[in-house]
Amino acid sequence: MALTHLPTKILDTVITNVLPEGFQSLTLTCRKIYALCTPFIERYNRLRSQFQDSTYYEKVNDLSFTIRTAFDLITRIAIEPVVARYIRDANFKMDSFFTLGRPR
Q1: What angle do CA 53, 72, 24 make, to 5 degrees?
Q2: Region 5-26: what's the mean pLDDT?
Q3: Is the pTM of this model over 0.90?
C-alpha cells in the first residue's frame, strides 16, 4: 500500500512523528504529502532555528527568547519533548558563570 493511500489522520500522525529528522525528506516525496506537511513547515523552521544550536546566552537581549539557562531548556523539553530532537549542539558553559545575576 502506498503511503499516499493512507487516511489523512494517519498521515498527520506520521508527519508529526518524523519531525525533525525526516521532515524535509518526507515533504519532497510527492505533492500530496507536501500539501499535508505545509501546516507543519512554519513550526519546524521555528523550532529548528531556535534549538539547532542552543547557545541561549547569546540571545539574552532577545525578549522573545525565553530560554536563558540550562534549567529553562530542560523545562521546555519536559513540556514539549520534541524540542530535544531539534538540538544538535548545546553549549552550557555560561551556566557556570551566572547564578542569580552574579558571577560564581
Answers
A1: 35
A2: 86
A3: no
pLDDT in tens, 86-102: 888 877 776 766 555 55
Those residues with Cβ within 8 angstroms of residue 56's Cβ, 6 or more apart along the chain or in another chain? 65, 67, 68, 69, 72, 73, 94
3-state secondary structure 1-34: CCHHHCCHHHHHHHHHHHCCCCHHHHHCCCHHHH
Tell me the pairing of strands 53-54 and 89-90. Answer: parallel
Task: Give the bridge partners for 86, in sequence order.
Answer: none
Q: How far is Cα 88 from Cα 86, in angstroms, rounded to an integer? A: 6
Cell numbers that stand for 45 in this block: 523552521
Q: Angle formed by the axes of helices 31-51 and 8-18, to 10°?
A: 30
Amino acid making up residue 79: I
Q: Which three cell numbers stand for residue 63?
A: 525578549
C-alpha dihedral over 29, 34, 37, 38, to 10 degrees? 150
Q: How far is 42 from 23, CA to CA, in rounded Å?
A: 12
